[in-house]
Design goal:
This protein is α/β, with parallel strands linked by helices. Helices cover about 40% and strands about 15% of the residues. The protein contains twelve helices and 15 strands. The strands form four sheets. A seven-stranded mixed β-sheet has the order 1-9-8-5-4-2-3. It has a three-stranded antiparallel β-sheet with strand order 7-6-13, with no helix packed on it. Strands 12-14-15 form a three-stranded antiparallel β-sheet. The chain binds pyridoxal-5'-phosphate.
Length: about 375
C-alpha cells in the first residue's frame, strides 16, 4: 500500500542524527527552554527568512498565543478560512472570540475578495486568520492591503505551508505574526507535538515568549496570564539537527511529484485543484476533486489499487457540530467550501515516494471510471 506518509523511510535518512540529537539533550541535563530551543528558533527563522521564531507546544497554541499577543479576547470577531484543520477556529473560540467564516474560492482557499466585502460590511471584525491551505500561498499583497485598509490584527496560519512563497516572498510575512505546526505529518514534522510563532519584530516576539511560559517577564514575575506552551528541548534538538537540514530537499521532491501529478492525471473525473495565482507551493497535500456522490467509491477504487487516500477535510468548518451554536452568523453558509469538502480526496505526496509509486498513483487516478 502506498501510504500518505511513510515515516519509516524517513527514519533511514534521519534516524542517526535524531538519536545523536536526543543523546545531546540527555547529556546536557537541561530539558525545557534551553540551548536546543534557542538553536532551533534561530535556524528556523533563518530558513524561513524572518527575524524571530518562538517555539511553542503545538500549532493550535501558536495561533492562540499570537492572537492573544495582538489583544484578541472575549467578544472579538475573527475572520477566517472556511476549510482548515479544526485547530484554526478552536484557537479563536478558546480566547472567547467568535470565528466569522468567508467562503472558499475554486482552489479551496479563503476567497480574499469575499473577505474584503465582509470586512466592508462588518467593521466590528478586527482580526483575521487566513490559512495557507494545502501548502499553497495566498496573495500576500492583498493580505497586506486588507491588513492596512481595515487595521487588522493578522495571524497567518502557516501550519501547512512552511517554505511556501507568493511571487518569491515567504508566506507568513503579511501578518504581525505567522503560526506553524510541527505535528508529525507536517512538511517539517517533529517526533511528537510542536509549533512556532514567527514574526519580523523583536518587540512583537517578546509577549509571545512571555505568554508561552506562564506570562513570566522575569523569573517568578508574572505580568500576564500566560500558558504552559513550551517546545521541548528534545523536539527542538531533533528538528534542528535531524529534520530541518532535509527540509529544502524534501520540499523540492514534493514539488517534483506535484508536477508529475499535474501533467500525468488526465482523467476528467479526477480534477486537480487549481494552484492559486502567484503561489509557489510546498505541496503539504495534493487535493483532487471527484463527484461528491462518488467520493466513497473513488476512495475504494484507490484502495483497491494499493493507494491510500485522505480527506482534507470531509466537512467545511461551518458544518462542524461544535460550531453549530454560531450557525447562521456567517451569511452565505459557505456553499462553495461545503461543495469543495464533499468532493475532495487527498493523494499521497510525501517526499519518500519512489518514481514507480508516483506512476502507480497516476495510473490509479486515470483508471477511475467516474
Ligand atoms: C491549517 C492548520 N492549522 C493549525 C493546525 C494545528 O496544529 P497542531 O496539530 O500542531 O496543533 C494544523 C495541523 O493540525 C493545520 O493543518
Amino acid at each position: 500500500m502506498i501510504l500518505l506518509n511513510d515515516f519509516r523511510r524517513q527514519w533511514a535518512d534521519t534516524g542517526g542524527a535524531a538519536m545523536d540529537a536526543m543523546a545531546k539533550v540527555g547529556a546536557s541535563g537541561w530539558y525545557v527552554l534551553g540551548e536546543q530551543v534557542k538553536r532551533f528558533e534561530q535556524d528556523l527563522a533563518h530558513w524561513w527568512g524572518v527575524e524571530q521564531a518562538i517555539g511553542v507546544a503545538n500549532g493550535l497554541d501558536a495561533i492562540e498565543l499570537a492572537l492573544k499577543a495582538l489583544g484578541c479576547g472575549p467578544g472579538d470577531f475573527v475572520l477566517t478560512s472556511p476549510i482548515s484543520a479544526f485547530a484554526t477556529p478552536l484557537a479563536i473560540t478558546k480566547l472567547g472570540a467568535q470565528p466569522v467564516f468567508c467562503d472558499a474560492d475554486e482552489s479551496g482557499q479563503v476567497d480574499l475578495a469575499a473577505c474584503r466585502r465582509t470586512l466592508e460590511q462588518r467593521p466590528e471584525i478586527r482580526y483575521f486568520v487566513p490559512v495557507h491551505l494545502f501548502g499553497q500561498c495566498l496573495d500576500l499583497d492583498e493580505l497586506d492591503r486588507l491588513r492596512d485598509d481595515f487595521q487588522l490584527g493578522l495571524v497567518e496560519d502557516c501550519a501547512q505551508s512552511i517554505g511556501a512563497r507568493f511571487l518569491g516572498r515567504p508566506c507568513g510575512t503579511a501578518g504581525q505574526y505567522a503560526a506553524t505546526s510541527f505535528y508529525p505529518t507536517k512538511n517539517l514534522g517533529a517526533m511528537g507535538d510542536g509549533g512556532a510563532v514567527l514574526t519580523n519584530s523583536e518587540a512583537a516576539a517578546l509577549p509571545v515568549r512571555q505568554l508561552r511560559d506562564y506570562g513570566q517577564t522575569a523569573k517568578y514575575r508574572h505580568d500576564l496570564l500566560g500558558y504552559n506552551s513550551r517546545l521541548d528541548e528534545l523536539q527542538a534538538a531533533i528538528l534542528a539537527h535531524a529534520y530541518l537540514p532535509w527540509l529544502t530537499q524534501w520540499t523540492l521532491r514534493r514539488r517534483a511529484i506535484a508536477a508529475e501529478y499535474l501533467t500525468g492525471i488526465t482523467n476528467p473525473a479526477i480534477r486537480c485543484v487549481p494552484v492559486p495565482p502567484g503561489s509557489e507551493g510546498v505541496w503539504h497535500l495534493f487535493p483532487v476533486l471527484v463527484q461528491p456522490h462518488r467520493k466513497e467509491a473513488a476512495m475504494a477504487h484507490f484502495k483497491a489499487a494499493e493507494v491510500a487516500t485522505g480527506e482534507h477535510y470531509p466537512l467545511a468548518l461551518v458544518e462542524q457540530k461544535a460550531l453549530a451554536h454560531l450557525a447562521g452568523k456567517w451569511g452565505s453558509g459557505c456553499a462553495r467550501a461545503q461543495h469543495f469538502c464533499h468532493a475532495e480526496i487527498s493523494l499521497p505526496i510525501h517526499p519518500y515516494l519512489t518514481d514507480a509509486e508516483v506512476r502507480q498513483v497516476i495510473d490509479a487516478a486515470n483508471g477511475w471510471q467516474g
